[in-house]
Design goal:
The complex is a heterodimer. Chain A is mainly alpha-helical. Chain A has 4 helices and 2 strands. The chains are: A mainly alpha, B mainly alpha.
């Protein structure tokens, strides 16, 4: 029982418009106020904090609960390979392969 | 800086040509290769998104329209997740907008990389994604930051939309995307991109504290809020807080 087509189209368009507004707000604000070097460092750090949290959530959480061991194990392999400066494609395919292999062996 | 002369024109053709020319000069071979590899990696994520959406019962055009209009992997996965779990469209939009709220601080952090001029900022803003922001943050030379932002942004825009469309078609054939481990692809790309920025100790401490807060919050708050709460991690390395805890402990 998926929502009706008009509701989905409207929802996606609203989401698109809202997302663009969030994206463009920073650059348009930045035109008016030019942040100090210290403020810019803080903003860059904030961006990294958000990206790291998003990574952790995407790796570990599914529907407000633990996503199971297979996915974080794959992401951990990706982290180790990234640390050793492996190519991006190798990193991503290894992560998916690890997760898939663990699920094949019965880990959720 | 030779592309400055185009700042006052609003002819987007000239603007794109001049931007591309300066990109070619500024980007070295290894950087181009890295951007190509991230694009390939995101193609896998895009395939997984399209496949997950249609194998869960959504029409093929849902992930395709999402990719064109929204162009943000995390929000798209969330939207599809909420809708296919029986949630309302309104709830899906609200959650995805919350997740995308991080683009506001992103925009403030990389405003210089978009280049000067209103047209560049308006057009460049749509290219703002986690991958492109992470890539840009790893560069310190202004010209390179601009080149990386635009090259990575345009490449990902093309790759993302094509791969999601392909995945949407394949999704009907793939019965279980989980069995292929495709759900690990998105966090894997993000982790690889964010790792270089974590070399700075202060940033690393703030990021780890923020991730811990987000994970704890995810157990009882609706999707979208936990990632924003991670910003509290910044307090862990704030000079005022550090000075106060320092006084208490020493």
């Amino acid at each position: 029982m998926t929502p009706s087509t008009p509701a989905l189209v409207a929802g996606i368009l609203v989401l698109g418009a809202g997302t663009y507004a969030l994206r463009v707000a920073g650059p348009l604000l930045g035109e008016r106020l030019s942040p100090s070097p210290a403020a810019r460092r803080l903003l860059e750090r904030a961006a990294v904090v958000l990206l790291t949290a998003l990574t952790a959530l995407a790796a570990l959480i599914q529907d407000s609960g633990f996503a199971g061991a297979a996915r974080p194990a794959g992401v951990l392999v990706a982290g180790i390979l990234a640390w050793r400066r492996a190519p991006f494609l190798v990193i991503v395919l290894s992560a998916a392969a690890t997760t898939a292999a663990l699920r094949l062996l019965g880990t959720t | 800086m030779s592309d400055r002369s185009f700042d006052l024109t609003d002819r987007s053709g000239l603007f794109i040509v001049s931007t591309m020319r300066s990109l070619h000069r500024t980007l070295g071979g290894p950087l181009v290769r890295d951007i190509a590899l991230v694009s390939l990696a995101d193609a896998v994520v895009g395939l997984s998104h399209g496949a997950i959406a249609t194998s869960a019962g959504l029409a093929w055009w849902v992930p395709v329209l999402l990719s064109v209009a929204v162009f943000a992997g995390g929000a798209q996965f969330l939207f599809v997740g909420v809708v296919t779990a029986g949630g309302s469209v309104t709830a899906a939009v609200a959650a995805a907008l919350l997740v995308n709220a991080r683009h506001l601080p992103f925009g403030l952090a990389i405003v210089d990389a978009l280049g000067t001029g209103r047209l560049r900022r308006l057009a460049g803003s749509h290219l703002m994604t986690d991958e492109t922001v992470a890539f840009t943050l790893a560069q310190h030379d202004p010209a390179r930051r601009r080149a990386v932002y635009w090259t990575c942004g345009v490449a990902l825009l093309a790759v993302w939309n094509l791969s999601v469309a392909a995945g949407a078609q394949a999704g009907r054939a793939i019965r279980d995307t989980g069995a292929l481990g495709l759900d690990a692809a998105f966090p894997a790309v993000l982790l690889a991109l964010v790792l270089p920025s974590l070399r700075d100790a202060g940033t690393r401490h703030a990021a780890l504290a923020g991730a811990a807060i987000a994970l704890a919050a995810a157990c009882f708050l609706p999707a979208g809020l936990p990632v924003l709460l991670a910003l509290l991690g910044l307090l862990a390395v704030h000079p005022a807080v550090r000075a106060r805890t320092g006084r208490v402990t020493s």
